[in-house]
Prior knowledge:
By secondary structure, this protein is of the alpha/beta class. Helix content is 32%, strand content 20%. The chain has helices at 13-24, 65-74, 99-106, 111-131, 140-148, 150-165, 203-210, 226-229, 242-245, 299-303, 330-344, 363-371; strands at residues 4-9, 29-32, 44-47, 50-53, 60-62, 85-88, 91-94, 195-197, 215-217, 233-238, 255-265, 275-278, 287-290, 307-316, 325-326, 349-351. Helix 1 (13-24) packs parallel to helix 12 (363-371) and helix 4 (111-131) packs antiparallel against helix 5. The longest helix has 21 residues, at 111-131. The chain is globular and about 70 Å long. It starts with a strand and ends in a 5-residue tail after the last helix.
Amino acid sequence: MKNYDYLIVGSGLFGTTFAYRARQEGKRCLVIDKRPHLGGNIYCEDVEGIHVHKYGAHIFHTSNKEVWDFVNSIVEFNRYTNSPVANYQGRLYNLPFNMNTFYQMWGVTTPEEAQKKLDEQRQEAVESMLKAGVKEPRNLEEQALLLIGRDIYERLIKGYTEKQWGRKCTELPAFIIKRLPVRLVFDNNYFNDRYQGIPIGGYNRLTEGLLEGIDTLTGTDFFADREHWENVAERIVFTGKIDEFYDYRFGKLEYRTVRFEQETINKPNYQGNAVVNYTEAEVPYTRIIEHKHFEMFGQQVYDCPQTVISREYSTEWKPGMEPYYPVNNDRNNRLYEQYAELAKQEQRVIFGGRLAEYKYYDMAPIVEKVLNMRIL
């Protein structure tokens, strides 16, 4: 007889939410993770009373009330609103693209003026493509120029995107930015979702609440003793890399990863915002995160005399690094489909999450997906 109903490989949000639901159904679960901590990429480290998002900024946002009520039943979320700022050659621009951005870019003050400027720039892109005999955008650059025009593309998209993907925009597929949010109102709220926030006390409280009463092991690599781990439970929930699960039978999928350069600074307020993107190519990092602004507001910021920042450097994934973002170009998508066909044939393995499904996910859709799953 097996010791558990489910072995869950990986303690990120998919694995922990699944474990919570399975336990609610009376199932016995064991969660293992090769990292020295639980929580996957939402793990926070306490530094001088500041909850540092060790694997990049995580802002929970959703319009699904069931999902929002569920996570708040585990831990209360605060009122944090994501309003990032872009820094281009020392000048600041609000994101997403809205009337504040257009005023900063062109000095326009009314929606009519902004629309006229956008239309002019878009028309230039259309005429350029017609001259080249091109009917549909062939790459990300052409798509962006059609959507937003040259000024915003050159200052706020091009350098940032090329750093993020490690490729020229002319070499990236157009579908990466099928659409860009454009708002003819003075609204810096990045997300359109009805609900957003950060767990009060940090994301570790969410992880701990989801895993309460469930057996866990950290520093435990499934592949180091695969035969053993495959025999401790009736079923396996696998959230790691699907190509690794199948021993790279068809070849290796590609990923992007992020390197974080963390610094504690002896001042209460470094940049005045949680997220500042650096959009020029000459600055090597993509953004700076100042973590205290996720949970500290107003006077709280100055009551804490130190601050912690993280500079983020995007790079190509290599073995030994943490894989973050699937590179969903044609070659990788075709390769993933081969692995997905194998996964469909599995009788006792469930694949879930960004790495196992080779698909970019925000946090809320992961929770929603698991809430809608049938627990056998």
